[in-house]
Design a protein that fits this description.
Layout (H helix, E strand, L loop, with lengths): L31 E2 L12 E3 L8 E4 L5 E2 L11 E6 L15 E8 L4 E2 L3 E6 L9 E8 L4 E10 L5 E6 L6 E4 L28 E2 L2 E2 L1
Antiparallel strand pairs: 1-5, 2-3, 3-8, 4-7, 5-6, 6-12, 8-11, 9-10, 9-12, 10-11, 13-14
Length: about 210
């Protein structure tokens, strides 16, 4: 099926509300089937992978309790999925000075994994074995990216591995080394009036300008 994507929209009283993105990318995902006990615990270990995202995985131990968000019916789901989340589809910008280089999305989004899970990212920057990396997750309540764990580069330098005790919301790692300044130009046009918008904020690859 197709994934569910988080998008934050600020609603101002007595004003017209436009979504921050005029389009939303819905990724096609393949799921890993699972079954739960009457108490909501997994009956076997779950290892989520995706052929399109080598080295990425999410592992949930047998006996882990899963709690579905209120707007989802657990009976509607029999599988979990992991997929690469395009940087252009991130729900909001990263903190100043941080540039995301790889992001993962999950389905169903918002699922609580009570006892936690192990997560592995690819190593796009070829960081050395043993180096630690901040792992961010998007917090919909705060509307921002928050460091949730420390990841470690594997001995073969192919993966960045971390353990998280949290919900399944988009997760990302940021770039290694010094971040060089990047300039951009252009204007933002109102989609209805076709006039320039003063003071607009633009999200480009997870950064604002």
């Amino acid at each position: 099926g197709y994934g569910r994507v988080t998008q934050r929209v600020e609603i101002v009283r007595q004003s017209e509300v436009l979504a921050p993105r005029p389009w939303i990318l819905l990724p096609l995902v393949e799921g890993t089937e699972f079954t739960l006990t009457a108490a909501g615990a997994t009956t076997a270990e779950l290892v989520l992978t995706n052929p399109a995202v080598p080295e990425a995985s999410l592992t949930i131990a047998a006996g882990t309790h899963l709690v579905f968000p209120p707007d989802l019916n657990a009976n509607d789901f029999d599988s979990l999925s992991i997929y690469e989340l395009p940087l252009s589809a991130l729900p909001t910008a990263f903190p100043d000075g941080e540039v995301p280089v790889f992001a993962l999305g999950f389905q169903p989004e918002g699922l609580e994994v009570v006892e936690g899970f192990d997560l592995a990212f690819p190593n796009p920057d070829s960081r050395p074995a043993g180096e630690t990396v901040d792992v961010y997750q998007f917090d919909p309540a705060l509307g921002e990216w928050v460091v949730k764990a420390q990841g470690t580069v594997s001995a073969d330098e192919l993966r960045i591995e971390a353990t998280l005790n949290t919900f399944l919301y988009p997760a990302a790692i940021t770039g290694a080394g010094q971040i060089l300044p990047v300039s951009s130009g252009g204007i933002v046009i109102d989609a209805i009036t076709s006039t320039p918008v003063d003071g607009a904020t633009v999200l480009v690859q997870g950064r604002t300008t």
